[in-house]
Amino acid sequence: MIRTAEYVSLGHPDKIADFISSSILDECLKQDPYVRYAVEVMVKNNNIILGGEITGNITLNHIKKYVKQALRHIGYDERYNTLWGDNAININKIKITNLISAQSREIAQGVNANGWGDQGVFVGYAEKNDGLINHELFLAQKLNNALYEKALKSDNLGLDIKTQITLDEKNNITTAIVAIPMLKKEDLTDFVIETLNQTPQNIIINGTGSYTTHSSIADCGITGRKLAVDFYSTACPIGGGSPWTKDASKADLTLNLYARKLAIDYLKDNDSCYVYLSSCIGKKDLPSAVIKTIKNGIVKTFNISPDCSPNVLIKMLKLDRPIYKKLCKKGLINYINSKGKPSF
Hints:
The protein is an alpha+beta fold and about 350 residues long. It has ten helices and twelve strands. About 30% of the residues lie in helices and about 25% in strands. A hairpin with an 8-residue loop joins strand 10 and strand 11 (about 290-295).
């Protein structure tokens, strides 16, 4: 079976939005470790719109400072603006619209009773492979991360990068696709081959022929719009809801991470493992928790009854810390290591 996966860099406009929200969440957690947070972000041109709910003992007097810090962390700093001008988001011209309010009291009463902040469905996956993920996604990530690090040091390459890898039945790379901004044409063929440690049958770099205008100037960035990238591409179903922009009382974050942990825990000597969880708003007990393992084509399915109350999982997964910028940068599925523990 031919398989394909893609990955995007932190400089992609949707990930800019994810990272800005994650950065503000970190600042809120520094002020109040019990903050309730759900803030969506839209980035278009140099306009940044913040909308959502925050409840806690915090102030947002320095919101523009937090946004600029996030942009600099990605690499969209003053130096970048000097190189790219109006072809990319300009840190000196950003305008912020703040539409943040407080969390609903009806939601709060359920969360205060150690219930989940929303209903939802969540899927975890692990596979016996590099990174315990499907190989096409591993390679797309690897290539993207290498290009992003190269671009951070370059005066010619931009940060809004997409990679896509297609494998055949024998895990040979049939096609490697790269989209990366360039001020002038640069041959990255050898870099792609060296990074992948394999020569793809086809290498396509900037399929339209040129790629200069990028980030939120060429596209509108919105939080949570890269779920296939954030999770397991096409190797596994995606549960409802984005894990970004939320504190750990939100099931979309914590139960997605816990599903990944369970998948790693139950992988053992199997070829792959799927985990299916669901939650109910205001309740700590899960309506369903199902494990599916596959070994040599033989499928086994069984139910489990773990303690999935928010307080237990938040402590287990160490999610009450300002780690969300790092989590967004490294990727959700990379947070749990091969031993089923938080990696940082």
